[in-house]
Amino acid sequence: MKKTYVLDTNVLIQAPYAINCFEDNDVVIPLVVVEELDGLKKAEGERGASARSAIRALEELRLKGDLLAGVSLPGGGILHIEKNFIHVELPPDLLENRPDNRILMVCRGLAENGSGQVILVTKDLVLRLKAQIAGIRAEDFTAEQVSMDDALYTGRREVYLPEELAKDFKKSGVSAEAVYIADEEGNHRDLKLTENEFLVLHLDQSSRKTLLGRVEGSRIVPLAYKKSKPYGVPPRNAGQYFMQEALMQSAQKAPLVIIKGMAGTAKTFYSLAVGLEKVYNNPNEEYRRIMICRPNAQFDSDIGYLPGDEQDKIAPLMRPVVDNLEQLLDSDESCRYENEIFLRDKVAEVFERGVIQAEALNYIRGRSIVKTYLIIDEAQNMTPNQVKGIITRAGQGTKIILLGDPRQIDRPFLDAYTNGLSYAAKYMKGSPLCWQVTLSADECERSELAMDAVKRLYG
């Protein structure tokens, strides 16, 4: 049965191409949505760019026919802009003249006018609640949503390896067919490995002996950087060994690294440590600089009101990065904070020399970033559209590191299954150019209190 989908403004802002995502069903855009897009088209940053993209898509269709009467979509459906149904009655509690309620009036009017099954598509939880009050079916926009199975992928697993193959593994690796997992009764089970998946290998005759490896094609190879200590930082657990392996690899072999994990698992700290190691101590001059972006949930609307130039405005977003730099640049824990002025000057010098550059995410658009170690912290606050833009900005010799915790979303209309970090993890899974790993709660290294809190509050 053919359906009619009515799109809210926030769907087109998050995914300007959304009008082409409904197969052969009809798509309706209320006139009030067009007016809201018009009001956003001059906005700075992602919202303005998305509004302009959506308007351009509508203009391309307008040139093909009458949008009020309907224009054919590539998938077989019809798109039209709806300006009628301004006198449709809603429940008494929804009589206020607001854009959301105008969209509800269009939905109800279409249903009463014989448009078949009418479905409102919106990212707004409150509007979906109001739609239920009005007797209108409402759904989230799911074209970019990852499944539960995709969200659970961690980029690592534990397997068993016959002990007689341990020496072969340490020398040059073993066939992927050599490892296995077992059920509760000890029977071997089929194992489907993913390219670049990290493995903790338990020797089947010695339960306490483990080796660390990675899937590379049809083989499992040992870690190449297991003995490294980037910028003097040694890995403390399996997750950090895996993270170090992905970060230390060249931009040619591992240009995209995705690291997920709770607060305190040293994602930002370790990424900075490897970056400083590569820029300061690498004689091959692999990277020109470290560039750091940290999305802000209210970046578009708030940053313009902060005083100063661009660097002054994004400074508050970089405070967590500075906290980590203080620990890295002064590794002597016993007297690290005795001379605060000296420590502050060391951090400032790194930025002044251009070793580390802080960038607003908005201004990455349109750039081609070459030979750069690019860290995107708190990447779970990016939209799928943003993460696609970031990854496609990578020039020759650039390594992109996406860090975040999909359960800690601060941006409206995003959740654990629709954010840019989860989206990138799903669609880049299995790529030989993407390495990803999720750090566990047991690998929290911030403090004993932080580790205990992570287990108790998030477990």
- What is the typical, i.e. mean, pLDDT? 88
The CATH C-level name of the largest domain is Alpha Beta
Query: What overall geometry do the principal axes of the alpha carbons give?
Result: globular
Q: What oligomerization state is this entry in? A: single chain
Count of folded domains: 3
Radius of gyration: 26 Å
Task: Please bin the fraction of helical residues.
Answer: 25-40%
CATH superfamily of the largest domain: P-loop containing nucleotide triphosphate hydrolases
- CATH 2nd-level architecture of the largest domain: 3-Layer(aba) Sandwich
Class of secondary structure makeup = alpha/beta
The proportion of residues in beta strands is 15-25%
Biggest sheet, strands in spatial order?
3-4-2-1-5-6
Uncertain spans: 297-306
> Counting H and I runs of at least 4 residues, what is the number of helices?
16
The major sheet is characterized as: 6 strands, mixed
Distance between the termini: 43 Å
| CATH fold name of the largest domain | Rossmann fold
**Would you count the extended β strands for me?**
19
